């Protein structure tokens, strides 16, 4: 009798515990499902190194031959401990050298030729997709830090990011008088996005802007796009994390709801809330997408849902190379003590 009582007590306790844990498990499953958005901010650098003082950063080439006013970095950063220079005579004493892929990829002879100081970092900077970055193998076994749009870069430089919005800074959705816009200059008829467009335009009217279409007057870009409900933010090639100014500037800054084509939806959702965009993969055919756009056009309540996230976050365009370069100063102070990347080509593709 006694042991029976003991047994039933144990069984009772086990049942209670199971109940409690089951409930906790259920709650955690439920929470996982809601998938709460958290923004990823740029310039994160992993693994700290002890602080270094006055650093000389050599800009090996000016990206696209645009000379950046880097003397102003100390003011921008409120930190005067980095000296930026483009004087190659300072190579041997430089703490870091920034190599922008586009100006050096053609030949090893375009890279520094003098013996390399063992403490010096070579930073590889590139914002182009792997498809548009030729001769990546040239960089194998040379680079210490990466600086790209890929989220696992040492110095993460996305095309844009979301910042927490302050309450004193409200937003209004502009009045929409038009439906779908697309700015496209790189027109290649066999590209998948053009083929998709050719199909989509059979079902919905799309206004084209850019080189072979209606030219946008300079400075009026965002203003004109902002009259549209939707903007086609179609990337020219599909790569992990490759989400460019087509989304950040053309769509988000113009307050047009982006219709995206690029990496899968889950990749976009690492950077932006799930209800901030429409993904072409959400539809099995372009016609289905067109039907959905018409539906949103008819139902303003539903359309406005695509702006809800804006009460909490604000998009910031990050394509100003001046700021990206200045931030190398911050990043270097926290750079890992010693490292190099065996194969840039494997990592990037
Ligand atoms: C970093 O710098 C600060 C101020 O110069 C100094 O107080 C601190 O000890 C330094 N830390 C290391 C790990 O060198
Ligand atoms: C940078 O990379 C080079 C070549 O891969 C290597 O020899 C050097 O030790 C690295 N330097 C640092 C500071 O990590």
From TrEMBL:
It is found in: Golgi apparatus, Golgi stack membrane. SUPFAM superfamilies: UDP-Glycosyltransferase/glycogen phosphorylase. The chain crosses the membrane at residues 12-29. It catalyses: a beta-D-galactosyl-(1->3)-N-acetyl-beta-D-glucosaminyl derivative + GDP-beta-L-fucose = a beta-D-galactosyl-(1->3)-[alpha-L-fucosyl-(1->4)]-N-acetyl-beta-D-glucosaminyl derivative + GDP + H(+); beta-D-galactosyl-(1->4)-N-acetyl-D-glucosamine + GDP-beta-L-fucose = beta-D-galactosyl-(1->4)-[alpha-L-fucosyl-(1->3)]-N-acetyl-D-glucosamine + GDP + H(+); a beta-D-galactosyl-(1->4)-N-acetyl-beta-D-glucosaminyl derivative + GDP-beta-L-fucose = a beta-D-galactosyl-(1->4)-[alpha-L-fucosyl-(1->3)]-N-acetyl-beta-D-glucosaminyl derivative + GDP + H(+); an N-acetyl-alpha-neuraminyl-(2->3)-beta-D-galactosyl-(1->4)-N-acetyl-beta-D-glucosaminyl derivative + GDP-beta-L-fucose = an alpha-Neu5Ac-(2->3)-beta-D-Gal-(1->4)-[alpha-L-Fuc-(1->3)]-beta-D-GlcNAc derivative + GDP + H(+). It comes from Hymenochirus boettgeri (Congo dwarf clawed frog). Pathway: Protein modification; protein glycosylation. Its EC number is 2.4.1.-. Residues 175-347 form the Fucosyltransferase C-terminal domain. InterPro entries: Glyco_tran_10_C, Glyco_tran_10_N, Glyco_trans_10, GT10-like_C_sf. The keyword DNA-binding does not apply. Residues 54-160 form the Fucosyltransferase N-terminal domain. GO terms for molecular function: 3-galactosyl-N-acetylglucosaminide 4-alpha-L-fucosyltransferase activity; 4-galactosyl-N-acetylglucosaminide 3-alpha-L-fucosyltransferase activity. This is Fucosyltransferase. GO terms for biological process: lipid metabolic process. Keywords: Glycoprotein, Glycosyltransferase, Golgi apparatus, Lipid metabolism, Membrane, Signal-anchor, Transferase, Transmembrane, Transmembrane helix. Belongs to the glycosyltransferase 10 family. It is a single-pass type II membrane protein. GO terms for cellular component: Golgi cisterna membrane.
């Amino acid at each position: 009798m006694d042991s029976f009582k003991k047994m039933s007590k144990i069984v009772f306790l086990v049942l209670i515990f199971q109940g409690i844990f089951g409930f906790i498990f259920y709650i955690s499953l439920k929470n996982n499902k809601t998938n709460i958005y958290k923004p990823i901010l740029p310039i994160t650098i992993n693994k700290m190194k002890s602080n270094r003082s006055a650093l000389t950063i050599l800009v090996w080439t000016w990206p696209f031959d645009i000379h950046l006013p880097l003397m102003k970095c100390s003011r921008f950063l409120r930190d005067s401990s980095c000296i930026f220079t483009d004087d190659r005579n300072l190579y041997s004493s430089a703490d870091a050298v920034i190599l922008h892929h586009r100006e050096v990829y053609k030949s090893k002879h375009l890279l520094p030729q003098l013996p390399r100081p063992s403490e010096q970092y070579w930073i590889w900077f590139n914002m182009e997709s792997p498809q548009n970055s030729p001769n990546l193998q040239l960089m194998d076994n040379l680079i210490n830090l990466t600086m790209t749009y890929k989220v696992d870069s040492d110095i993460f430089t996305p095309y844009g990011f979301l910042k927490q919005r302050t309450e004193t800074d409200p937003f209004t959705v502009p009045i929409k008088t038009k439906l779908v816009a697309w700015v496209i200059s790189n027109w290649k008829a066999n590209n998948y996005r053009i083929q998709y467009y050719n199909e989509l335009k059979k079902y919905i009217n799309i206004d084209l802007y850019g080189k072979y279409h209606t030219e946008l007057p300079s400075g009026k870009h965002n203003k004109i796009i902002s009259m549209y409900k939707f903007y086609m933010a179609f990337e020219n090639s599909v790569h992990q994390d490759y989400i460019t100014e087509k989304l950040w500037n053309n769509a988000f800054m113009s307050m047009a709801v982006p219709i995206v084509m690029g990496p899968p939806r889950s990749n976009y959702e690492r950077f932006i809330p799930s209800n901030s965009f429409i993904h072409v993969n959400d539809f099995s055919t372009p016609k289905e997408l067109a039907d959905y756009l018409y539906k949103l056009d008819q139902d303003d309540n539903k359309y406005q849902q695509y702006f809800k996230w804006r009460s909490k976050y604000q998009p910031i365009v990050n394509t100003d190379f001046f700021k990206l370069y200045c931030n190398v100063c911050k990043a270097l102070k926290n750079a890992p003590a010693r490292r190099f990347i065996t194969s840039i080509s494997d990592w990037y593709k």
